[in-house]
Amino acid sequence: MSDLTAETKTRIDGIVGENDVVLFMKGTPLFPQCGFSNRATSILDHCGVAYESVDVLQDMEIRQGIKAYSDWPTIPQLYVKGEFVGGSDIMMEMFEAGELQQLMDEKQVTKAG
After folding, report:
1. Helical ranges in 19-87 per DSSP H
2. Which residue from 19, 33, 64, 98 has the highest number of Cβ atoms inside 10 Å of its Cβ?
3. Which molecular function GO terms apply here (predicted)?
4. What is the pLDDT of residue 2?
């Protein structure tokens, strides 16, 4: 937890708590900066849900802090209704199995406009 300051934890708590679906990623949905982030945004777009994205490349505290916050070593990271779901590999497995869409439906996530 050494990379997670109280201030950064509070900021991440706020981001995760205020949005149904949050993707911490490298880059933006329009300009992903890595293949895993690109895949993650494509999966969410296919699910047809509204989501917030956080570009960790713009904020080193969040970039390091999110790894400690979730105890997950890689980015991207997906949160649904405040709950950590996983990275792009887990997202892909869940999507292919129909589990990610099911999760979005069960949690009554807002659909993309």
Report:
1. 35-47, 60-70
2. 19
3. 2 iron, 2 sulfur cluster binding; disulfide oxidoreductase activity; metal ion binding
4. 56
Please check if 34 is assigned to a binding site. yes
Q: What is the CA radius of gyration of the chain?
A: 13
Q: How far is CA 15 from the centre of its chain?
A: 10
pLDDT band per the 50, 70, 90 thresholds, residue 109: very high
**Average pLDDT over the chain, rounded to an integer:** 96
Full set of structural domains in the chain with CATH: 6-106 (3.40.30.10)
- Give the single-character DSSP code of 1: -
Q: Which residue has the tokens 């880059």?
A: 27
DSSP per position, 92-106 = HHHHHTTHHHHHHHH
